[in-house]
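Hey, I'm writing a tutorial for new members on how sequence and structure tokens pair up, and I'd like a real worked example in the thread rather than a made-up one. If someone can provide the structure for the chain below, I'll link this post from the tutorial.
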Amino acid sequence: MEAFKGGDPKVILRLAADIGHYIGDAHVPLHTTKNYNGQYTNQYGIHGFWETRLPELFSAEYNFFVGGASYLPNFREKIWQVVRESHALLPMTLEVERQLSTTFRKKGKYSYEERSGRTEKTYSFAFSQAYHQASRA
């Protein structure tokens, strides 16, 4: 509220961007666990895979238009509701990757791609597509 009272557009935009980021983070199942990057389940790298690789490849299939804003008188309860719902997706998020890793083994799970003038190891398109399809089922 203070940012709006102050009327500084730069401060308002910066704070709005921060809030938007945190709202997005609350919807990420991996952000609800200390195993956020698969470090405790031998799935290291799943965070970047889930949060970057999949959206880069499949964002055209996502619905970004979910309706207009509305006032939430009890926003704290809504925040925790979202966190609980996101956390409920954690077992599936990890299990799909675990099952596909067994299917793909080392061969076919990763590929090398050119990114910003560098060759980088990344999850293959085939593995990413299989994960995307399995997690949406």
